[in-house]
Design brief:
The chain has about 650 residues and is an alpha+beta fold. The chain folds into two domains: about 1-70, no CATH class; about 80-545, Methylamine Dehydrogenase, Chain H. The strands form eight sheets. Strands 2-3-4-5-33 form a five-stranded antiparallel sheet. Strands 6-7-8-9-32 form a five-stranded antiparallel sheet, covered by helices on one side. Strands 10, 11, 12, 13 and 14 form a five-stranded antiparallel sheet that branches.
């Protein structure tokens, strides 16, 4: 009986039910019972995937509920400084940051990779000059170059290295950071809007660089087999993918063995007459990027909005793909700031749309893509405008399910320049911002806070007894009562009675390091958030990490450096400092890398003159290297002034 009751409740309700009585505690402590609940409610969550490995389903259930609530209530479990960096990238739970001693030359430049989902007190450290010398031998004597991390996933880190040689050259370096191996180097034709996505076995990189017959730039992809070390000669042209700003108008992602591409635009030129907007979404198997097998969403499944709904402030929008934790359904998550139905005020709203394709292995033809069986009108905006109101076969815009729309707020308290991260957590039904909220006494001093908006069902209003003549008005009141509202939470909270305590002061120093304010760049994932603050010509940025995962533990932290409690949000900081090893210091524990591979793009052996290389040339790496090591994480030895 309890199993039937539990499976009909949400995970949060099951958790609360277990706290009502000690006889119900088995709901969240017995693995066999928790397994059934997890499979029914959150089979595709990160915690469920971990439980499939270790069998600890009860722990996964508790961890999942606490994570969702920590996000909804804007109460992270850990706040810590984790490093100093010039640039950084946070993805797949890994923090990749470039550290350089600004008082030394370029020989003191290091790429450090820290696993924040499973911090062990150690991190991978890569000597960038040695790495580039091995990947591109003729660049060893060059001092003027730029190095940045593009992407990290599944233990593969992709970096961009640009040199000013006799002619400018841009190289994509592919590194297996777990095996400390340099997989290869690719000379790029272009770096315009360069992006990289990869799984364990396949890597795709693309640029917005090739012009089509219509004169507009188009996306083009290249395919690399990580297992065989093979770069395909063929280019994949995405001629129908409109948009160029990744994360705002387009996005790319790898999910369950497919490469997905998504755009919230369908035309290079906006049609101003009764313009209806659709998503353009496609996918294909990673191992078989055959254009004839590419699947594309049909229009009847990809409706987005109508122009008549009101104008959009594109500066606030974001676009992403993610899997639903309960069903595993891939969903489009988009945020738009709109002036709806001619209102004078604007509002941010968050929309979720299910991605629907035909059966696997079946491609989508152009005829099928444009086939709207319910719309027999000519494909002309003016004709559609004149005929749509009278033609019964016209395809009307579908109604949005209530649960697919989260109406936020106008966000007028914080302008765009004060809002440094805008995100949405579908599993928690919460939008989350990182905002700068200075106090009235210090309006020019940075004070970063998390602002979360949890969707809550509004209370039903008591309907007054009305006569039959007023039943319509009563129905409208009931509809208004059933609308949702947002529970807004700000963290850290304001000091009680205007008096700050030592913990609040310490937290403020952690989130806003003295001398390192402004120039904020933030990113997040399902469990945590990382942002960089500060940074000038003479100083590095400070990296601050906020984790909503109750199981987070910073292993290797000095005693007393982290206030940790399984059930209470805490703050932590680091002390001490360890300088980066010198360029000529062999150090200890160097793991040799480099292994032979196969390619059809004329592999070049290291040591060759390579005086004339064509673009998209793949260099095959062979021989031992000494550019990678594992050492203590920087967060265990940060300078004392950051405490």
């Amino acid at each position: 009986m309890m199993a039937n009751v539990a499976t009909s409740l949400s995970l949060e309700d099951v958790f609360d039910l277990s706290l009502c009585c000690r006889h119900f505690q088995y709901l969240i402590t017995e693995d066999s019972f928790a397994k059934r609940i997890i499979h029914a409610k959150a089979q595709f969550s990160l915690e469920a995937q971990q439980a499939e490995i270790d069998g600890r389903y009860a722990r996964a259930l508790r961890r999942l509920v606490k994570r969702r609530r920590a996000i909804a209530e804007a109460r992270p479990y850990v706040v810590a400084m984790v490093g100093l960096a010039d640039t950084h990238v946070f993805s797949d739970g890994k923090l990749c940051y470039v550290h350089q001693d600004l008082h030394e030359d370029m020989a003191q430049q290091w790429l450090r990779i820290l696993d924040l989902h499973n911090p062990s007190g150690q991190e991978t450290v890569i000597n960038i000059p040695r790495l580039t010398a091995e990947a591109i031998p003729r660049s060893e004597t060059r001092q003027n170059y730029s190095f940045s991390v593009i992407h990290n996933a599944e233990g593969i880190t992709s970096c961009l290295c640009s040199f000013t040689l006799p002619e400018p050259e841009d190289w994509l370096l592919i590194i297996d950071t777990e095996k400390h191996e340099l997989v290869g180097a690719i000379l790029l034709e272009s770096t315009i809007r360069l992006f990289v996505r990869n799984s364990e076995s396949y890597l795709y990189y693309g640029t917005h660089s090739e012009y089509g017959a219509d004169g507009f730039r188009k996306w083009v992809l290249r395919f690399f087999d990580l297992t065989k070390r093979h770069l395909s000669r063929r280019k994949i042209h995405l001629s129908n993918l409109v948009g160029y700003e990744i994360g705002s108008t387009v996005c790319f992602d790898i999910i369950d063995g497919y490469l997905y591409g998504l755009s919230n635009q369908t035309a290079f030129e906006v049609e101003e007459i009764d313009w209806t907007s659709y998503y353009y979404c496609f996918r294909f198997r990673l191992e078989d990027p055959d254009p004839h097998k590419t699947q594309i969403m049909k229009k009847r499944d990809s409706w987005r909005r109508q122009h008549a709904e009101g104008p959009i402030d594109d500066r606030w929008g974001f676009l992403k793909l993610e899997k639903d934790e309960r069903t595993g359904q891939v969903r489009i998550i988009e945020s738009r700031k709109e002036w709806l139905t001619g209102q004078s005020g604007n509002r941010r709203s968050y929309y979720a749309t299910n991605v629907v394709f035909k059966n696997e292995g079946e491609g989508t033809t152009d005829e099928e893509l444009d086939d709207n069986t319910e719309n027999n009108l000519p494909d002309d905006p003016l004709t559609m405008l004149l005929e749509s109101s009278s033609n019964p076969n016209y395809l009307r815009p579908p109604s949005r399910p209530p649960r697919s729309v989260h109406s936020g707020d106008d966000g007028t308290l914080f302008g765009l320049s004060k809002t440094h991260l805008r995100s949405y957590y579908d599993s928690s039904e919460t939008f989350l911002d990182l905002v700068d909220d200075p106090t009235p006494l210090a309006p020019c001093t940075q004070r970063l806070r998390i602002r979360a908006g949890k969707r809550m069902a509004a209370r039903f209003m008591k309907l007054q007894e009305t006569s039959a003549s007023s039943s319509v008005q009563g129905h409208r009141e009931k509809e208004k009562a059933e609308e949702v509202r947002n529970l807004i939470t700000m963290w850290p909270g304001e000091p009680e009675n205007g008096c700050s305590d030592p913990t609040s002061e310490r937290l403020s120093r952690l989130m806003n390091p003295m001398g390192h304010q402004g120039n904020i760049l933030a990113a997040d994932d399902e469990r945590s958030m990382v942002y960089a603050t500060g940074g000038t010509a003479d100083t590095l940025k400070v990296l601050v990490w906020l984790s909503f995962d109750p199981a987070t533990k910073l292993t290797g932290k000095p005693s007393g450096g982290l206030l940790n409690s399984p059930a209470t949000p805490v703050v932590g900081c680091a002390n001490g400092y360890a300088r980066s090893p010198k360029h000529d210091d062999p150090g200890g524990g160097i793991i040799q890398g480099g292994s032979p591979g196969v390619t059809d793009n004329h592999p070049l052996q290291v040591g060759a003159s390579n005086k004339s290389l064509s673009a998209n040339t793949f260099i095959l790496i062979e021989g031992a290297s000494g550019w990678a090591r594992t050492e203590k994480a920087m967060y265990t030895h940060l300078p004392g002034q950051y405490v």
